[in-house]
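Annotated sample (chain length 444).
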Amino acid sequence: MAECTAGRRCGAFAADHRQIPADVQRQPLVSLLNPRASINVPLCVPPLSSPTTPLAMHRVLLIAVPLFALCMVIEWMWGRRMGRNTHDLADSISSLSQGLMSLAVAAVTPLFQTGLYAATLPHVALLPASAWSSGWGWAAAIIVYDFCDYWLHRVSHESAIFWAAHAVHHQSERFNLTTALRQESFYAVMGAPFFLPMALLGMPVDLYLGAGLFVLLYQFWIHTELIGKLGWLDRVVSTPSNHRVHHAVNPGYLDKNYGAVLVIWDRMFGSFTEETEPCVFGTVKPLHSWSPLRAVGQFYGELFERARATPRWRDRVRVLFKSPGWAPPGLPAFAPPDEARLRQPRFVSHLKPLDIGRAISLFLATGAATAMWLDVADDLGEGRNLLAAAVVAIGLSATGVMLTRGVDEHTASERISRRRAWGIYLIALVLCVGLIAVMTAWQG
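Output written by the structure step:
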């Protein structure tokens, strides 16, 4: 699932860039991107009736979260009734933790979420915003956004530095609706330039935000094993069958079916494959950890080690941008997944009731703290937002520690003692409750 790069904070320039004074339009782009620059730019946001104002988008998210939760419960119950339970508690909490982590990163990187687009729009737009004011303008924006997202998604599988950011979404060895919310923390930061063709077409910020939101929400339902093939739809749009292929490590499925909404792009550019055999999910080198920070840093660490072992500086740079499986001269080549990988058991935790209770309570406290913080993040300074993000990271990391307590002690290097687990749990819980209290006082 490709993450929507349209972050929650609009802070956008006028919907029609012609409303910006000429002296501002002539200023260098660097000065417009500088938050401390003393320029007078009127922030003309769309009317409150627009579905992409910060207020309306927040309402959409508030509605979507409980709907997502309901759908996940229904999927779990349906799977159990059919004898095909695709959920695992530790895996689901781990995936949802990555979703919270991505929201925290988005809150402290607003420049890359919408700022770059908003700042670039008045300087490169070839068409006026009025050209997209009709209903078909929204349809065109979704199609163009989906096309741009296809290439970002494809590059994220074919370039190692981009894969390092995107790999988080593929690490789960389960495939269910919680996987859809296993969002990447740095994907939007690196992918923002891929959507600048929309600015070149003069599509205003509200269309950019709305199209991104639509593409993001669409992809939720295609992360499931419980919906089979859908006939002609599988040949036109991204469906559960098509997306199962994308998440699989079967040799014939690797790096296929990138389309977020339309699978037509894959058919046009030779990256489409039908589902013909059972899928094995995860990454070629499994993560085998519930730590959210380790998940985010896994492939970055591998890249660092690979570059350090590479003798020539030119090859060290190529390691970053070549295929994730590329090896420079002098290093052994990376073999594709073999039968042993396809037969490898899934990573699981055999959790005791105490660890289950601590993990769930800490995750819920961290989720509540994140929601309270994001509700007022626009009014906080950079320093306070960074502190809040740090608390969220601590809460999610501590949740991962509780989940790791259920991993076989002979295979888990991260497993810790009972006394230390209680200490980590209580510290993280106090920090999350403290963040909730501070945010409540701030709102009051």
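Annotation: Residues 2-56 have pLDDT under 50 and may be disordered.
Annotation: The two ends are 37 Å apart (CA to CA).
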